[in-house]
Amino acid sequence: MPTGPIELFALHHHSSSEDRAMAAVVKEYVDTNVKPHVAEWFEKGEVPARELMRDFGSLGALGMHLQGYGCAGTTATAYGLAALELEAGDSGIRSMVSVQGSLAMFAIYEFGTEDQKQTWLPRMATGEIIGCFGLTEADFGSNPQGMLTNAKRDGQDWILNGSKMWITNGSVADVAVVWAQTTEGIRGFIVPTNSPGFVSNIIHKKMSLRASITSELVFTDVRLPADSMLPEVQGLRGPLSCLNEARFGIAFGALGAARDCLETAIDYSINRVQFDRPIAGYQLTQKKLADMTLELGKGMLLALHLSHLKDTVGVTPEQISLGKLNNAREALKIARECRSILGGNGITLEYPIIRHMNNLESVFTYEGTNEMHTLVIGHALTGLAAFK
Amino acid sequence: MKIAVCVKQVPDTWAEKKLKADTSTLDRESADGVLNELDEYAVEQALQLVEANGGEVVIVTMGPERAAETLRKAISMGADAGIHVLDNNLAGSDAIATSAVLAKALEGRDFDLIIFGSESTDARMSVIPAMVAERLGLAQVTFAQKVNVDGTTLTAERVTDYGFDTLSATLPAVVSVVEKINEPRYPSFKGIMAAKKKPVETLTATDLGLDPSVVGAGAAWSAVADFAARPPKPAGVVISDEGSGGTSIADYLTTSKFI
To answer: Which B residues 146-185 touch A at CB under 8 Å?
Structure first.
């Protein structure tokens, strides 16, 4: 009886049975409700976001590692493992949950007033309200400091102008957390998407994350009451701490996609016969499988180490960069190698690999590009910031 | 109302199962233990009844140490407490002994309703609910596809070969439910985290006042004399249709007693 790549590492010793029970529930949900449909969603470029979000809400997966306000209050490890199981389904599905919990909800949870938290978080935790997070702009990706979106005081109110790009859940969201320049530096605002002057445009012609909604948000004189502003943070520290939460989830999540590719490739190679024997019996294939298993297991150990830090002494942004950079990069390599094992079958949506592979191109780039995380690590090692 | 749900840990439905050469019993190490899938419907039904009528749900299981995980899984769906009958002397118990143990664990606790799944996916006998009801002297409504409780009256639809019968009984009663009855919920993360704080009583056969000689493999009314792997499937029959294909298929089905 062959051993699975994750089982080979006996990684269950790094998590509690409770953490694994939560991951198992997500896996069961994904196997039943996502995997059978996701290829079709991907092909059509659509996803039943509202329905899925409700389900994730009833599982307790939205803002799961936050305390109170209807959130489950799990460990960071449970959150990571849940992200992994979601992304074993599809990176787009994990993105949907990450954006809701780690970006939109976390921003309100960390920087909002008690009223703001009470108003938004319980209904976001159930999935009744969908949130999105507006930081990136068309011309300001890695350098959000230069953002053009701005909010100006008008009496007690704020008037918001500008636009945001590449916003996951943008066109399905009920509320957006938007970061904008003000005279007091960058500030966060809670913006209901039905506010007059708020327009979202779905980004079409994507070849990646097709089972996920990505949008442009445009604000034209959107009037916001004074209590829309998140008072507890000023400057880029606000959005960047949210991104840290989400990047932590990606360090796990990307490996879910990789695991699904690798399990598919192992299974395929055992059953695919060429020259009268399974291709899994050839040394070239076995080397590919062994190398990928090593990278997957090492990535898991790194992710679990980060979650252990986060659950105990805390994890630094630089450490999260190590995880996001390595695991998104290795996951993408694993997906490409698995594609080669499946040959021609590897390019169809009959198998999950090309879908994961295309998705991982986005995962590699979003939430801090490969280059930016490299330079964050370089900065930590040398004290010299190469990106400024 | 106070509801007990009896659940069983079974080997993972999808795993390759092995029997132990020495005892002819299942090698539990060969497969992961999971909550018997059909018991999830029983848990769901109990939770729905309590959500509608108030009360509490207690999960009851008999099994080795690792069955505690299964008990927690069932509790994490939203139940309030658990009872685990854990005793090495119980290993190898047949249905008669199992029903005696469960009846002892259930009696005297004022349950209004005791719910079972329709069968376990390993033994597949479906007899435990009836045996337990008989031992406790309670009404039994088995294979229910619908259960309603109004005061102390239970009404249920019992699935039969030709449709269903509508039955009613006075509580307390024993019910087994079929898959059609509901869609079991997933344990929520909050449920999983709360489950470890829910009280679980662990009891031995002696605690229950059972004579060790009436339980376990030694007391079983039947024994496995021998076992062998299933022989490989014989090659299928190929029928070429030369105008009589339909008849040939019908003949084949008749010979095999399918029709």
So the answer is: 185
The reply to whether residue B185 touches residue A72, judged by beta carbons under 8 angstroms, is no
ipTM: 0.88
Give pLDDT, residue B194.
Answer: 95
pLDDT at A30: 98
Residue A80 falls inside a structural domain: yes
Give me the pLDDT at residue B164, please: 96
Residues comprising chain A, all counted: 388
Query: What total of structural domains would you count in chain A?
Result: 3
A146: which residues sit within 8 A by CB, 6+ positions away? A139, A140
Comparing CA positions, the residue from A87, A191, A182, A179 lying closest to residue A131 is A191
User: Residue A387: inside a domain, yes or no?
Assistant: no
Fold of the domain built from segment(s) B2-219: Rossmann fold (3.40.50)
Cα A363 from Cα A332, distance rounded (Å): 9
Residue A22 lies in a domain: yes
For residue A334, the domain's CATH number is 1.20.140.10
Per-residue pLDDT tens over the stretch B148-161: 999 999 999 999 99
Question: Which positions 12-31 of A are in contact with B (Cβ < 8 Å)?
Answer: 17-18, 21-22, 25, 28-29
Indicate the residue type of A232. Answer: E
Cα atoms in the Cβ-side hemisphere of radius 13 Å centred on A354: 15
A216 tagged catalytic: no
Q: Is residue A388 part of a domain?
A: no
pLDDT given for residue B50 in this prediction: 97
Collect the ranges in chain A with pLDDT lower than 50. none
| A81 near B CB under 8 A | no
B212-241 residues touching A, CB cutoff 8 A: none
Instruction: Select from B69, B186, B193 the Cβ nearest to the Cβ of A74.
Output: B193
The whole-number pLDDT of residue A108 equals 98
A69: contact with B, CB 8 A cutoff? no
Q: How do the domains of chain B map onto residue ranges?
A: 2-219
Query: Distance (Å) from the C-alpha of residue B89 to the closest C-alpha of chain A?
Result: 27
Considering A85, A137, A295, A367, which one is annotated as catalytic?
A: A367
**Per-residue model confidence as pLDDT tens digits over A337-369:** 999 999 999 999 999 999 999 999 999 999 999
Q: What is the pLDDT of residue A192?
A: 98
Which of A18, A61, A78 is the closest to B196 by Cβ? Answer: A18
Task: Give the residue numbers spanning the domain of A302.
Answer: 237-382
CA angle A222, A223, A224 (to 5 degrees): 115
Please check whether residue A74 touches B, CB under 8 A.
Answer: yes
State how far the Cα of A252 lies from the Cα of A231, in Å rounded to an integer.
Answer: 31
Of B69, B192, B196, the CB nearest to A22: B192
Q: By percentage, how much of chain B surpasses pLDDT 90? A: 72
- Say which CATH number the domain at A221 has: 2.40.110.10
B195: left (phi over 0), alpha (psi -120 to 50) or beta: alpha
